[in-house]
Design brief:
two-stranded antiparallel ribbon; binds manganese (II) ion; about 15% strand; alpha/beta; binds pseudouridine-5'-monophosphate; single chain; Indigoidine synthase fold
Length: about 300
């Protein structure tokens, strides 16, 4: 019944049949995170990076009442250029399917769809979190409870400083989500390798991260893991350079009364404009880096568990 809703791209269907490593990729980053045509170019480059690392990419989106697990070239082009694509989180997924609209999956919705497709690992750029001023706005991304509920390991470059990072970590701790910094002690902050906060956990190998997810399954613990992978050194943007753009974007959002689902896309868009595209190159570099680590973790899961054809 559920499987009727899913359409697998040919390479993903083949990987599932063989039980080889698959890495899920989200599509909100394409529709609401980067401008056309860089968004489509970046999406293709990320998929190529996953293949180069020996795994199969599965970019997830919703079209024509179906969940696409892996997009064809034409579908990716259509998605990258379309206007009025729905931004799908847990709350919107069913409505989008029923209404036959085009939808891009956020971290939360991509986790749900990846899990339905039997995919354990998902690489992206940044996750949503507790927004600054959440004590009055109540703005907490649905990505956070999803990490507590759905057993997918998510690789991100930490969270952007548009968020309240200490509160984001507190929320994840409450929901029992392991937050694992890769190869360092500090929790990374997207454009910078160090947020000034210590990550709750540290792991230095993809094998450990894979084993920890399998251990959670053995323990009967639901929910995923957040792997915080620092941006490559040469792509890092100094805090002095990015902070003014962040502060200005936040002030504009407040002045214009931006709320709910629009907040994050508005901030991402403004920061990009304010840094004149400087942040886009870094953004792409960190997603590629996360795709490589995601592939390595997915390969380790297959190695440790043995191939499980689906
Ligand atoms: N943060 C980023 N880049 C992104 C997003 C967040 O640095 O692309 C996107 C992701 O799709 C994430 C979503 O799941 O925004 C979170 O939106 P919200 O804060 O409305 O939950
Ligand atoms: Mn929100």
């Amino acid at each position: 019944m559920t499987q009727d809703l899913l359409i697998y791209a040919p390479e993903v269907a083949e990987a599932r049949a063989k039980g080889t490593a698959i890495v899920a990729l989200e599509s909100t980053i394409i529709t609401h995170g980067m401008p056309f045509p860089q968004n489509v170019e970046a999406a293709r480059a990320v998929e190529a990076e996953v293949r180069k690392a020996g795994a199969t990419p599965a970019t997830i989106a919703v079209m024509g009442g179906k969940i696409l697990i892996g997009l064809t070239d034409a579908q990716l082009d259509a998605l990258g250029q379309a206007e009025h694509v729905m931004k799908l989180s847990r709350a919107d997924l069913a409505a989008c399917l029923v209404q036959g609209k085009m939808g891009a999956t956020t971290v939360a919705a991509t986790m749900i769809c990846a899990h339905l497709a039997g995919i354990d690992v998902f690489a992206t750029g940044g996750i949503g979190g507790v927004h600054r001023g959440a004590d009055t706005s109540f703005d907490i991304s649905a990505d956070l409870p999803e990490l507590g509920d759905t057993p997918v390991t998510v690789i991100a470059a930490g969270a952007k400083a548009i968020l309240d990072l200490p509160k984001t970590l507190e929320y994840l701790e409450t929901r029992g989500v392991p937050v694992i910094a890769y190869g360092q002690d500090a929790f990374p902050a997207f454009w910078s390798r160090d947020s000034g906060l210590k990550a709750p956990l540290r792991m230095d190998t993809a094998a450990d991260i894979a084993a920890a997810q399998l251990m959670r399954t053995r323990l009967g613990l639901p929910g995923g893991q957040l792997v915080a992978n620092p941006i490559p050194l040469d792509a890092e943007i100094a805090r002095e350079e990015i902070n003014p753009a962040i502060e200005q974007a936040l002030a504009e959002a407040e002045a214009q009364g931006i709320a709910a689902k629009e907040v994050t896309p508005f901030l991402l868009d403004r920061i990009l404009e304010l840094t004149e595209g400087r942040s886009l190159a870094s953004n792409i570099a960190l997603v590629l880096n996360n795709a490589r680590l995601g592939a390595a973790i997915a390969l380790e899961i297959v190695r440790l568990r043995g191939p499980q054809p689906l």
